[in-house]
Design goal:
Its cofactor is pyridoxal 5'-phosphate. By secondary structure, the chain is an alpha/beta fold. It has 14 helices and 15 strands. Helix 4 runs parallel beside helix 11.
Length: 404
């Protein structure tokens, strides 16, 4: 334990305190499992917030990285490289969109979508200059840049970071009528998550996505679907919006697109939206670099070739059914879709944080969100046997007096 504390104390001394990690120090990992600096083995039930859908160090993705590193990792966008076109083609053919625009992080993808929507509003919809408005949902999480926190409903995300960026309106999540009432002649886009991850795995009412798509189409408003956490098989479909068979105007992607090895993000849209960008409008030194492109192609291939979306659908149902069989007075609700699962405890029993730490001690890593919810998002490679093992450990923790 001394070794663990040494690493934690070092990070606390030299790093900004903008995170509150579970007190484990991970040194290595493979598949669904990680090992700490003391040699203890843990089942990773968070998967780097769904960035490791394919499992840690998947050999196909690692080999793609090594091969590309030994050629050329970075060229900048001042020049073409021989990997980016193939990567963008693969993304577009996978999703059915006409164009992809590569960036690095999820927040950058969201910023790119916001810029695309605003310029589309002025150029195509002919909104009066400086008046474009974008609607978002309460309890959203789209990133932490100044523009993005400007439409957060979390006080902590805005307090002492103002002035916030104007041009955003926030409505309740899951309320299609509220969207219809909020739209006006200056509305250029509605941005939403098909499932709210950071909010505690909040799933909207059945039919909500279809209704949202109808309302936005009727009003000539772009629908931006943030699939950064939910994309690439996590919910049992390649993209979560496919559960309701809709087609957004813009999709933001990230996390699992990098295969757990490298930050890669992108937006997808048709020419109608993408053609508003001209050289110099937007960009990134690293966006679309050959290393990212090689990794991204391998990451996509693993999701498709290994049927990980279908696997998440089957095993997610198995996992949720198993959790629902836990008889505990402390559990308020189990909710999820695919392998994106939340277990909410009753408010009177305090924070979910101590439960996550107890699970850590039993060899299972997860994290609380919104104080009361434990989020379970394991690698999509997880087996039924590993799920059974996780459920037994969760049962053990909830069989104890959690108020102690």
């Amino acid at each position: 334990m001394k070794k663990t504390l040494d690493f934690i104390n070092q990070a606390n001394k030299w790093g900004a305190h903008n995170y509150h990690p579970i007190p484990v120090v991970i040194e290595s990992g493979e598949g669904c499992w990680v090992y700490d600096v003391e040699g203890k083995k843990y089942l990773d039930m968070l998967s780097a917030y769904s960035a490791v859908n394919q499992g840690h160090r998947h050999p196909k993705i690692v080999n793609a990285l090594i091969e590309q590193v030994n050629q050329i990792p970075l060229t900048s966008r001042a020049f073409h490289n021989n990997k980016m076109g193939s990567f963008l083609m693969k993304l577009c053919q996978l999703s059915g969109y006409e164009k992809a625009l590569p960036m690095n992080t999820g927040a950058e993808a969201v910023e790119t979508a916001l810029k695309a929507a605003r310029k589309w509003g002025y150029v195509k919809k002919k909104v009066e200059a400086g008046k474009a408005e974008i609607i978002a949902c309460s309890n959203n999480f789209h990133g932490r840049t100044i523009s993005i926190v400007s439409f957060s409903s979390e006080d902590q995300h805005q307090n002492d970071f103002g002035p916030v960026t104007p041009g955003f309106k926030v409505i309740p999540y899951g309320d299609a009528d509220a969207l219809e009432h909020a739209i006006n002649e200056n509305t250029v886009a509605f941005i939403m998550e098909p499932i709210q991850g950071e909010a505690g795995i909040i799933i909207p009412p059945e039919g909500y996505l279809k209704k949202v798509r109808e309302i936005t189409k009727k009003n000539n408003v772009l629908l931006i679907m943030d699939e950064i956490q939910t994309g690439f098989g996590r919910t049992g479909k390649l993209f979560a919006h496919q559960h309701e068979d809709i087609r957004p105007d813009i999709i933001t992607l990230g996390k699992a697109l990098g295969g757990g090895l490298y930050p890669i993000s992108a937006i997808l849209a048709d020419d109608e939206v993408m053609e508003v960008f001209t050289p110099g409008d937007h960009g990134s030194t690293f966006g679309g670099n050959p290393l990212a492109a090689a990794i991204g192609m391998a990451a996509i291939d693993v999701i498709v070739e290994e049927g990980l979306a279908e696997r998440a659908d089957e095993l997610g149902t198995y996992f949720i059914d198993g959790l629902k069989k836990i008889d505990s007075p402390y559990i308020k609700e189990i909710r999820g879709k695919g392998l994106m699962v939340g277990l909410e405890i009753k408010e009177e029993y305090g924070s979910a944080r101590p439960l996550c730490e107890k699970l850590m001690n039993l060899g299972l890593l997860c994290k609380e969100t919104h104080e009361l919810t434990i989020r379970f998002c394991p690698s999509l490679k997880i087996s039924k046997e590993e799920i059974d093992w996780a459920i037994e450990n969760i049962k053990t923790v909830f069989a104890e007096d959690i108020t102690q």
